[in-house]
Design brief:
Layout: E1 5-15, H1 20-29, E2 34-43, E3 46-56, H2 57-74, E4 77-83, H3 85-95, E5 99-106, H4 111-123, E6 127-133, E7 149-156, H5 162-176, E8 179-184, E9 194-197, H6 208-216, H7 219-230, H8 236-245, H9 253-260, H10 268-277, E10 281-289, H11 290-300, E11 304-313, E12 316-322, H12 328-341, E13 349-353, H13 359-364, E14 367-371, H14 375-380, E15 383-385, H15 393-396, H16 401-406
Parallel strand pairs: 9-10, 9-13, 10-11, 13-14, 14-15
Antiparallel strand pairs: 1-3, 1-4, 2-3, 5-7, 5-8, 6-7, 11-12
């Protein structure tokens, strides 16, 4: 930069109105001004506009005078800050730093929660570039059903200890009743294409094997084995074999009745509608049963179902299963296989589940989410949703309620 050039940052605040930004930039356009940076935010009709520009030293006085007159006409506040070349170079160098998206999610968010989270970011040496609300306007009556609040922070910098930060965020999540997602802000984050769901206790609020066991009169025995397997205390395949054996003799017609009365998890209808509308490929990778997965596939237009096939002879379950058991290892393999078939980079995949057998696919996916999960799963997942329904996944993908409402998607 030569000695006859100045760098000036202007900050404008006040009541927003149509044409305000045009009025300011029209003044700048009358001079040989180069715009180096510009940003604007609007909160409840209150504008905050910043422009960093380069101009000739001989023009800077006239530019500032005209801007002050215009600000007075418009009833807005304007302040000027000279920027040194060194300050500008420092700012430019920061642009190459790591970029992240931190998403906070809950039924409601308070100043206490936001203060605690932003303090963690500050202690890690991270800078917040932008903050935006993804959910619709909060109703004053917080008791209304389906209330949820989501705030997204654009963050930049190099964390001092990113694993420690994740642990601190996890601790806050538990203590303050909120969910979070901390993701790298790269091109893959904006281009997720494949999402894989566990079925039992994720898409539906039950374990299908428990429902079958109730009809077979062995509910308590099967639930005990299921709970132990989900906690990771016993081998999944062995537990599966034991549970299926207890179903021997059950009439296959029971499965239809169970399928038609499955308790669908909160938010599934909305989530599936949005994912299909925006072209995502959707898979069920389940340690449950194919019959129920196929039912959900038909209901929601799901693309892939991989689950376990129960053997049926003469209209009754034999207590055996067909083929390879879909355990945690197999779920991770299937995630990678489907990604290859769909020509999707693994970084563009999402996996959502609740049990210990979901951890391999959650760890493998570009975005792994523990949903109302067991403690072991939450502790090993980088993202979790515990406070709201399954459509909370949309906020971790960056969807904004207002965009969906504009397109007729509630």
């Amino acid at each position: 930069m030569d000695n006859h050039t100045e760098l000036i940052l202007i900050r404008i605040t006040g009541l927003d109105r149509p044409g305000l930004t045009a009025s300011i930039t029209e003044i700048l356009s009358q001079y040989n001004v180069g715009i180096l940076d510009i940003g604007q935010a609007d909160i409840h009709s209150t504008l905050s506009l910043g422009i960093l520009f380069k101009c000739s030293e001989k023009d800077s006085g006239n530019i500032m005078k005209e801007l002050l007159f215009k600000a007075s006409d418009l009833g807005i506040n304007i302040r000027f800050y000279p920027i040194s070349p060194e300050e500008y170079e420092d700012w430019v160098s920061m642009q190459g730093k790591n970029r992240y998206i931190l998403t906070l999610l809950g039924r409601k968010l308070s100043a206490k929660q936001i203060a605690a989270v932003t303090r963690i970011l500050a202690d890690q040496g991270l800078n917040i570039d932008a903050i935006k609300r993804l959910t619709g306007r909060m109703p004053l009556d917080e008791q209304k059903a389906s209330v949820r609040a989501c705030i997204e922070f654009s963050v930049r910098g190099t964390a001092r200890d990113i694993e420690e930060m994740q642990r601190e965020l996890m601790r806050l999540s538990s203590e303050l009743g909120m969910d979070f997602s901390f993701q790298q802000d790269n091109m893959y984050r904006r281009m997720r294409r494949l999402i894989c769901f566990d079925m039992d206790s994720t898409l539906i609020q039950t374990e299908c094997i428990d429902e079958l066991a109730e009809r077979a009169g062995v509910g308590d025995k099967v639930r005990e084995i299921t709970a132990s397997a989900m906690r990771g205390e016993i081998d999944f395949i062995e537990s599966f074999r034991q549970r299926v054996a207890l179903l021997k003799g059950l009439d296959v017609s029971v499965m239809k009745d169970i399928a038609e009365n499955l308790p669908i998890t909160e938010g599934v209808e909305r989530l599936m509608f949005v994912l299909k509308r925006y072209g995502y490929k959707i898979a069920i990778l389940s340690g449950g049963f194919t019959y129920f997965g196929e039912y959900l596939k038909q209901r929601y237009g799901i693309d892939y179902v991989y689950a376990n096939e129960l053997e049926v002879v003469d209209g009754k379950l034999t207590g055996r299963y067909l083929g390879e058991v879909i355990d945690g290892r197999r779920k991770a393999e299937l995630l990678k296989l489907i990604a290859q078939v769909e020509k999707v980079d693994i970084a563009q995949t999402i996996a959502v589940g609740d049990g210990a057998n979901d951890l391999p696919m959650i760890s493998e996916a570009g975005l792994g989410i523990a949903f109302h999960a067991k403690p072991k799963v939450v502790a090993n997942a980088k993202q979790s949703i515990n406070t709201i329904g399954l459509d909370g996944v949309l906020y971790f993908l960056g969807f904004k309620d207002s965009y969906l409402e504009e397109r007729g998607i509630l």
